[in-house]
Design goal:
The chain is mainly alpha-helical. The protein has helices at 20-24, 45-62, 69-88, 91-98, 104-117, 167-176, 179-206, and strands at 8-10, 13-15, 64-68, 126-130, 142-147.
Length: 215
């Protein structure tokens, strides 16, 4: 039979070479799922971005819309980001918003109505509430997505919480009785607050005067 190098010559048949994976009965072919996430909504990137742009424009206009649960979860991320852009109030922020929103009316409402409403909030501008009944036809689960702190909202929003940076670290240092840690975190808190105040002043100096929302 000559030298057997990984196979056994059995007439017209041949036994494949034995490897640790074949002996265990499986072969690992799956790699790590880095950079992959859900929420594709059954569309490619171009169609998905067009859909989200239309939905966030309607959400800013009406402040509450109904859609399917997966779409509402994806829209929430973009809707919160639009409020963050609106709170900057600079010319560059208006250009960034104009690249996403479809109408001038929604841009004016974002910077003139919604952004001033959430000056005290640091996040959590929208909420998603599931509906009891599914959509007729395909029985898809639907949900309401709306901006909080508005008249006629489905659920009363909790008041914004103002917490200073390093608050938990200072509490832990006080419980331990460590004066060195307490002094360190107190100084870090003051530096962080000073940096935040400087950033706010810088943004305020770059804000531009805008017209009110369209009637």
């Amino acid at each position: 039979m000559g030298g057997l190098r990984g196979t056994f010559a059995l007439g017209p048949f041949a036994m494949p070479s034995l490897t640790p994976q074949s002996l265990l009965g499986f072969e690992q072919t799956r790699s790590m799922r880095h950079g992959q996430r859900r929420g594709k909504l059954g569309r490619n990137s171009t169609e998905r971005w067009a859909l989200l742009r239309n939905m966030v424009t309607d959400l800013i206009k009406h402040e509450r819309i109904q859609t399917t649960v997966p779409k509402a979860k994806e829209l929430k991320r973009l809707a919160d980001k639009m409020i963050t852009i609106g709170k900057e109030g600079t010319l560059m922020a208006r250009r960034r918003a104009g690249a996403i929103l479809r109408t001038d009316e929604s841009i004016r409402k974002l910077f003139g109505v919604l952004a001033p409403r959430y000056t005290e909030r640091a996040g959590g501008y929208t909420r998603v509430l599931r509906s009891i009944n599914n959509r007729k036809g395909d029985n898809a689960p639907v949900a309401w997505i709306e901006y909080v702190d508005r008249e006629g909202e489905l659920r009363t929003a909790k008041p914004p919480v103002t917490r200073l940076p390093y608050t938990k670290c200072l509490q832990s240092a006080e419980e331990k009785g460590d004066e060195r840690l307490k002094e360190y975190y107190t100084k870090a808190q003051q530096d962080q607050m000073a940096a935040t105040a400087a950033r706010v002043d810088r943004i305020e100096s770059k804000k531009i005067i805008i017209r009110g929302p369209a009637e």
